[in-house]
Amino acid sequence: MSAAPSGITLATLTKDVRLEWRSKDAINSMLFFALLVVVVFSFSFDPVAEESRQIAGGLVWVAFLFAAVVALNQTWARELRNQVLDAYRVSPAPANSLFLAKAMGNFLFVGVLEALMTPLFVVFYKLRVLGPAWQLLPVAILGTWAIVVNGTFFAAMSLRTRSREIMLPLLLFPITIPALLSMVEATTTILVGDPSTSAKFWIVLLATYDVVFTTGCLALFETVLHAE
Amino acid sequence: MNDPNAAHTEAEAIIAVANLVKQFGRFAALRGVSASFHASRMYGILGDNGAGKTTLLRILAGLVPPTRGEVTILGKNNPREVCREFGYMAHPSLLYDEMSGMENLRYFACLYGLEDARCADIIAAVGLDPGLQRPVGQYSQGMRQRMSLARALLNDPKILLLDEPFSNVDIRSAREMVKLLARMRNGGKTIFVVTHQASLLDGTADEFVWMDSGQIINRTPDLKFMETA
Predict the structure, then answer these.
(1) C-alpha to C-alpha distance for A85 and A78, rounded to whole angstroms
(2) B197 lies in a domain?
(3) Is the pTM of this model over 0.95?
(4) Which of A141, A160, A216, B199 reaches 20 to 30 Å from B163, CA-CA?
(5) Would you list which residues of chain B are within 8 Å, Cβ to Cβ, of chain A?
(6) How far apart are the first and last CA of chain B?
(7) How many domains would you assign to chain B?
(8) Which CATH number fits the domain that encloses residue B129?
């Protein structure tokens, strides 16, 4: 008898959420970091409403990207304690179930961070959306997935390196640039509400990026998991 | 001295390794190990630190690929193909400290597609209380080792690979674990025990495999070789 891959994914996701709920390692560090960024930037700049709309897209996503790195490092660190990852590796469970569960878990944690921090950004930067606000939802979903899918993969890749906390951003940030550009442009376009431009192009680009990189990560993850 | 690569030619080996070499950079952890092992036997793998015991076990478990050489387990050359037949217990517990023993086992049972009901039986079989709600991180070392053994036994494996199962375990608990292993061997399991506490296996293990500097230097039915080595 063998478990369905979706069942293993769900069990691993549930286990990760339970571990995070009990330890709060990732969420606390992410929240603290993102909060610092909001406060420090709000004291450093004092933009008027129009300037806020121009820079907020970049600020928000860079803050979320940096904060996400904290969660991404944590996600595999807990598998290294007591070498629990070896228990998964000797089992017949498919590697991609683990990868998807980890990526979905990170998506959830970063999503919670975004939900908590967005109101603060709105207040601190006096933001008011002039474009179609509903378009921010697909940007947030696709953008967050772009960060976590690559982040989960590269965090796994840097697991066995000596300085993995440094390796992850070194690997992740360059590869995320096209997605980051799309997220920032789409967010700024929506916030500014310029009728001559549309965020749709950037959203499609983001969706394409997600499909390509999710496929790539799934194709390569088994090799990464069982690499020496 | 016995032939270190002695094979029981009367029966087909359950595990056979041939010219196994494992390099970690310039360090050779295994240097041409060839041996065969048979079903329903308990093997004590002995040797000093750095002798290659753990590396051999990790190669058999499919966790580490050999640099050169061949591994045949249950007729297959890739340990991944027969991973359902393995139980692996490492020196660390391979358990999540923040979860209770039952929560840990339920998760690992799911990886093997096993029923939850089996978890309680296995926990009881290793002498622990299945109703224990404490997280594993708060267990004593002995309890953690037992729970780790329970995890290794979860899928009712044919082959058990145990790395230092008695370390930090009090002598009474260790003897109970040996009795449990003996019962499982008598029930048909093939058991490999890497240990520095060889005397615990004296009279129970069927064969002792002596390793030194990445090679098998002897295979004996008892511990007398320890006195001459």
Answers:
(1) 9
(2) yes
(3) no
(4) A160
(5) 61-65, 80, 83-84, 86, 88, 90, 92-99, 103, 107-108, 110-114, 135, 151
(6) 10
(7) 1
(8) 3.40.50.300
